[in-house]
Specification:
Radius of gyration: 27 Å
Bound molecules: zinc ion
Number of helices: 16
Strand content: 5-15%
Distance between the termini: 36 Å
Oligomer: single chain
């Protein structure tokens, strides 16, 4: 039984068939319009180029970045989280949570409950389950996500992983990563792609951010971006993929021969039990009951900022977690905390750059560029925060995100007006809202069509 026979019976067969055809056509058009405007066809590709400082693009010719910026939206830098190190910053981007909440608050850390030390090779679920990464949110919504390297992507988060993921292997050529992720998005019909490159961070550490030999590395990443954009275009995905290219942190010059703070000179084993990590910052375990004595011993040391856990400044969002040790310190930009100045000095010629410092320092802030059907064109907006990426991607993929510290209000400044307005529902979007709107619109248009059919003289088309 057709739609028409429900309304009219079968005596007006020819008219009825015409009406049914026009009704179905109308339905198709309405569904198409709603599907495209609601982002049903949208895909998101999140790319991180590790340690890509915000000013690197001004240091040499980067035509592909220039092209991406002209076709999309950028900002002077992105405000990232503290400490400005790879694992905490990447997991903040993926979850929209500050490190004290997601729990990956350093590259190396100690958990007193587990009585275990975390290193970057750790993929045990229990370390990662303080947050829900975006690739898990996607699969929970019935979407498909593929991650080609990202901190946390190898761990099962509450028994879930991305639809596709890869075990970290730095030797996989960058182009191979691009080919795989774009094939997921095209042939595999994936909705979300996430990928990671370890440059220009590796070279930045070795050379320092201001060495002329870093320029070819930046140019190489520009060529990888060119290859990525071309592969997306050749796969027919250019009008569907919202591409975000960003990074975790910046880089600054260090001098391991002359600019180190050797804490062993100020605090001995009577107050200091162990140092969990060292470098631009340090989590320290005092001897039992010696927290304040350890802080007192290190207070006033030049180029060092030392705190009892509870006194760590609120702006760092780095205190409310058991993995924050009773005493925490961070160094002035370019200075390194060590327990052995002699061994540090031996690495002075091979390690000339670092990061991890105060996230308010301009040199710690990374790039951010986004381009695609949802984003503004040739626009520069105020900096967003790295916690805003998670709710932004949830918005673009029509997903209800897990609780997070980000702001969709800030994220929406990146979007063109049509996409931003269509999705303007209380800070998070849900498929059901759009299904409801879709049915209402279909009902109104169908009623109008029936009215016109029954009253042909009511509409005069000149
Ligand atoms: Zn990094």
């Amino acid at each position: 039984m057709g739609v028409c026979s429900v309304f009219y019976g079968l005596e007006k067969e020819d008219h009825c068939r015409d009406f049914e055809m026009s009704f179905l056509l109308l339905l198709t058009v309405v569904q198409y319009v709603l599907h495209t405007t609601a982002g049903g066809d949208m895909k998101v590709l999140l790319v991180s180029m590790d340690g890509f400082r915000n000013d690197y693009l001004t240091k040499t010719k980067t035509p592909s970045f220039d092209k991406l910026i002209a076709s999309g939206v950028t900002m002077a830098y992105m405000n990232n989280s503290f400490v400005t190190n790879t694992f905490p910053c990447h997991y903040t981007m993926a979850t929209g949570l500050y490190p004290e909440t997601h729990g990956i608050l350093a590259n190396t850390m100690y958990d007193p409950e587990f009585n275990r030390t975390f290193t970057m090779a750790n993929t045990e679920s229990r370390w990662w389950e303080g947050g829900e990464p975006i690739w898990i949110t996607a699969v929970k919504h019935g979407l498909q996500s593929g991650v080609y390297f990202w901190p946390g992507s190898e761990a099962a988060i509450h028994d879930r992983k991305a639809t596709q993921w890869r075990k970290y292997n730095q030797t996989v050529p960058f182009k191979e990563r691009v080919d795989t992720v774009v094939s997921w998005l095209s042939e595999g019909k994936f909705d979300l792609g996430v990928m990671y490159f370890h440059e220009p961070d590796s070279s930045g550490h070795r050379l320092g951010p201001n060495d002329p030999n870093l320029l070819p590395v930046i140019e190489e990443m520009d060529k990888i971006l060119e290859y990525l954009m071309l592969t997306i275009e050749n796969s027919g995905l250019k009008d569907k993929v919202n591409l975000i290219v960003t990074s975790d942190h910046g880089m600054t010059d260090i001098d391991l021969a002359h600019r180190v703070v050797d804490i062993s000179r100020y605090a001995n084993s009577s107050v200091l039990k162990s140092v969990v990590d060292q470098g631009s910052s340090s989590h320290m375990r005092p001897q039992e009951g010696k927290d304040r004595e350890l802080v007192a011993a290190l207070s006033g040391v030049e180029h060092l900022h030392v705190f009892l856990k509870e006194d760590i400044p609120e702006r760092f969002h780095l205190k409310n977690n058991r993995r924050v040790m009773p005493v925490f310190a961070y160094a002035d930009e370019g200075w390194m905390i060590t327990t052995n100045a002699t061994t540090s000095a031996q690495r002075a010629n091979t390690s000339k750059g670092s990061h991890g410092y105060d996230n308010e320092l301009i040199n710690m802030k990374p790039i951010f560029i986004a381009s695609g059907p949802a984003f503004k064109v040739n626009a520069t907006v105020d900096p967003i925060r790295s916690v805003d990426i998670y709710p932004l991607i949830c918005h673009l993929l029509n997903m209800t995100g897990a609780p997070n510290n980000g702001s969709l209000y800030r994220g929406k400044t990146l979007l063109n007006s049509s996409f931003s307005e269509v999705h303007s529902s209380q800070g998070s979007t849900s498929q059901s809202v759009w299904m409801e709107a879709s049915y209402t619109l279909v009902f109104i248009l169908a009623s109008l069509n029936i009215y016109i059919y029954m009253n042909p003289n009511s509409v005069i088309i000149s």
